[in-house]
Amino acid sequence: METANPIFRHQISADVIALDKQGRVVLVGDVRGSRVVKLTLSQFTSYLKATQTVVPFAMLVDPETIQIVQWDGVNWSEAICSLKTTNIVNYYDPSCDNQTIDGDYLEALIESWLRDLAYHWKSVTPPATNDLAAIGLLQQLEDGSTKSDVEIAGDTLLGDQFFDEYLYWA
Question: Smallest Cα–Cα separation from 53: which of 39, 67, 73?
Answer without folding.
Answer: 73
